[in-house]
Each structure stands twice: as structure tokens, then as C-alpha cells.
Amino acid sequence: MRITARAEYAVRAMVELAAVGEHQTLSAEGIASRQGIPRAFLLGILGELRRAGLVASVRGSSGGWKLARPAEAVTLAMVVRAVEGPLAQVSETRPEEAQYQGRAEPLRLVWVALRASIREVLEHVTIDQIAGDTLPEHVLARTRDADAWTSR
């Protein structure tokens, strides 16, 4: 799975908003400078997150951006889907809809299993857990294997 800059920036922006609390706002400039995200790119991402109901914009002198729901109710999967669409696709198709013939037929099962593995992490980690540095044990356990830290 390739995590795009758009998805990574969206998660980082959500973490910054969680860190200030659900009733506080942060300007796009504040988020951008804290995370080193290009402001123009961030504004587009914030718009997508707003359309997905994850953030809200507040007008006025104390305006800016804030979480639209509690950080503990927002998973990484929700954020990634808001800016990228489905978590796993095979040639622009859902894994369960992929069709293969002959010896390649079991490949469909591999793609479905891969999506399930991605969900196991992204649907069970919340923005609140990242902001509070309290990742679930099942996620931390996956990082203890030395192979998890190498690219192949």
C-alpha cells in the first residue's frame, strides 16, 4: 500500500486539531506551519475533510478549523477514505470484484486478505490515540518485528 502525501497530510492535520481539543480552532496557517504542509495543498485537504464531516470551519476573529466530532471517534481509515477513497483497490476495482482466470484465480483472495490487513490497523487506530501517543497494543506489536522496519 502506498500512503500518498495527501493522506499523510490529512492525518497530520487531524492530529494537530485533536491536540488543541475539540472545542478549539486552529488556522490553516497554524496547522501548515506546525506540520510543514504547504498551505494551499492543506486548504484543499481541509475542504475534503469538511465534506466528509470530519472537520468544521469556524468564521470570525477566533475562527479557523476544528474537529467536527470527538478525536476518539475518528479512525485513520475514515481520514484516508475522505481524501483518497477506498483503502484498497486493484486496478480501480474493489478486491472482491476482481476477476481472474486459471492459475491466477486465487489472486483475488490475496487482494481481499491485504485489504483486511490494512483495515485491521487503519480502522482500529484513532486520531486521539495518535495525538495522545497511546497506540493500541496490536499495532505496537506489529512494529516489534525487525522485518517491519525494512523495505524490500
From TrEMBL:
- Tell me which positions the record assigns to the signal sequence: none
Respond yes or no to whether keyword DNA-binding is given for this record: yes
Q: Does the keyword Metal-binding apply?
A: no
What PROSITE patterns does the entry give? HTH_RRF2_2 (PS51197)
The protein's matches in InterPro entries, at most eight in alphabetical order, are given as: Tscrpt_reg_Rrf2, WH-like_DNA-bd_sf, WH_DNA-bd_sf
Q: Pfam families recorded for this chain?
A: Rrf2 (PF02082)
Question: Keywords of this protein's UniProt record, alphabetized?
Answer: DNA-binding
What is this protein called in UniProt? RrF2 family transcriptional regulator
Q: Which organism is it from?
A: Saccharopolyspora rosea
